[in-house]
Amino acid sequence: MRCLVTGGAGYVGSHVAQELLDRGHQVVVLDNFSTGHRKAIPVGAELREVDLGNVEETKYLLAKEKWDVVLHFAALSLVGDSMNDPCHYLKRNTETSLNLIQACVEGGVKKFIFSSTAALFGGENRVVPIPDDAGIEPGSPYGESKFFIERALKWADKIYGLKFACLRYFNAAGADIHGRLGEDHRPETHLIPLAIDAMLGRRPLLKIFGSDYPTNDGTCVRDYIHVNDLADAHIRSIDQLEHKSVTYNLGNGRGFSNLEIVRGIERVSGRSVPWEWGESRIGDPAVLIADSSRIRKETGWNPKYSSLDDIIGTALHWREKNPQGYNE
């Protein structure tokens, strides 16, 4: 296949691009490098430096070349920032995605993979683990923007026949099992790399936000899924789009609390993580765990790196080998 990966210089996008290349597909990365890294683009991928906010450039790219599938990862993705500037998040994420969807329709693209999020499930009154057909109640403007895009894709299918997969993954974590790629957000907001860097003395004390959630130890519980398993799920989902659109929740089906993550890092590394309590954050649900039974049944997907030690071990290996991240 010839695949266009938007946001392919980012964390999940780069790992999916690498997996596509490993399986023999042609990959073109589209990125404006507002948050991505040039060094994260896998060897063998082509680059198109385009901003999806530019509708004419986006349309030109999609019409100029033939694409078997578009995989869309490019987005603003910080929940806290979206709470501080909701209009910017809602406008930017929705506008760029609508530009891309329109360009796909006009360019004759038939398959679209969308990087969605568990932030759609922000309310506390829900079944856990969360099934694909659970009620949508975004807990942040970031989550709301992703829901807007999911709805737009449903109309693009109904009216134009653009088949899509909305993949709502929970907490992407870990690094490429071969050590080629890793996680390097700037600023970093994810718990595992923050805790590892605090342990390695590369940043101040780790803050654990909130100690009074209704969980076993009072801290938030999340479903962590290895980024290589996420990549596998994206590629498996492409085959489903021959005849239908699909929506899948992606996770391991087991949650770990913030304190359990810290203890896991200490166990795997043999070192202590310095940390302190912080205030609870607005928009943080107490528990997010995925029911991924549908994608398992329909595609045969089964996470290979589901243990916490696998996830932490690969993340630790990459951060130790790359103390400055992608060093840009």
Question: Could you characterize the architecture of this molecule?
Answer:
Pathway: Carbohydrate metabolism; galactose metabolism. This protein has 328 residues and is of the alpha/beta class. The chain has two domains: 2-173 and 225-250, 3-Layer(aba) Sandwich (Rossmann fold), CATH 3.40.50; 191-222 and 254-321, UDP-galactose 4-epimerase, domain 1, CATH 3.90.25. The chain is 38% helix and 17% strand. It has ten helices and 14 strands. The chain has helices at residues 11-22, 55-64, 79-84, 86-107, 141-160, 191-199, 227-240, 258-269, 293-299, 308-321; strands spanning 2-6, 26-30, 46-48, 69-72, 111-117, 163-169, 171-173, 206-209, 221-222, 224-226, 246-250, 256-257, 275-278, 287-288. The strands form four sheets. Strands 3-2-1-4-5-6-11 form a seven-stranded parallel β-sheet, with helices on both faces. Strands 12-9-14 form a three-stranded mixed β-sheet. A two-stranded parallel sheet has the order 7-10. Helix 5 (141-160) links the parallel strand 5 and strand 6. The two termini are 31 Å apart. The mean pLDDT is 96.
Show the helix and strand layout.
Layout lengths: L1 E5 L4 H12 L3 E5 L15 E3 L6 H10 L4 E4 L6 H6 L1 H22 L3 E7 L23 H20 L2 E7 L1 E3 L17 H9 L6 E4 L11 E2 L1 E3 H14 L5 E5 L5 E2 H12 L5 E4 L8 E2 L4 H7 L8 H14 L7
Parallel strand pairs: 1-2, 1-4, 2-3, 4-5, 5-6, 6-11, 7-10, 8-13, 9-14
Antiparallel strand pairs: 9-12
Helix pairs in contact: 1-7, 2-4, 4-5, 6-8, 6-10, 8-10
Cofactor: NAD(+)
Enzyme class: isomerase
Pathway: Carbohydrate metabolism; galactose metabolism
